[in-house]
Amino acid sequence: MTAVTAPTAPTAVTAVRAVTARTAGNRIAGHRTGGPTLGRSTTPAVAASGSWTDPDGVRMPAGEVHAWTHGTNQTVCGLALSRASLLRFPHVPWTEVQPATGADADRVQRVCPRCQAAAGGRPRRGWTRHDPRP
Question: How many structural domains does the chain have?
Fold first, then answer.
């Protein structure tokens, strides 16, 4: 004689996953499907061609710097990190490597202009009229 087991009730975790999947359009919220980023910042970090260690022992970017977003394998301008041999600096925000204002821009030689335009790091120049008519 075979034993018949009663169906078990779903656990709380299974129920939460089912509700989350239904509310997120059959996707789990926070999963790499364009959902909300849990604990990730939307401001880009830095990927650079070189590094140096400051007196406090923190690794800092050097050489050519690009804007990079967490969770991707490419820069904001579309350059693959592995093919370009770029190092990731997730602890350094993009605003800190700008030569004009950044504190971590000591050994930065070049800032990628495409990344700078995409990340909004360029200062806006206002429109001015030159040599106006009387």
Answer: 1
Alpha-carbon distance of 66 to 73, in angstroms, equals 12
- Interatomic CA distance for residues 3 and 78, integer angstroms: 60
Residue 113 maps to a domain: yes
For residue 88, how many other CB atoms are within 10 A of its CB? Answer: 15
Run of H or E including 13: helix 12-23
In a domain, 39, yes or no: no
Contacts of 111 (CB under 8 A, 6+ apart): 64, 65, 97, 98, 99, 121
CA torsion angle 100 58 89 104 (round to 10): 0
pTM: 0.61
**What is the full per-residue pLDDT of the chain (134 aa) written as tens digits?**
566 665 555 555 454 454 444 444 444 444 444 444 445 557 899 999 999 998 999 999 999 999 999 999 999 999 999 999 999 999 999 888 888 877 778 889 999 999 988 887 556 677 777 877 76
Does residue 52 sit within a domain? Answer: yes
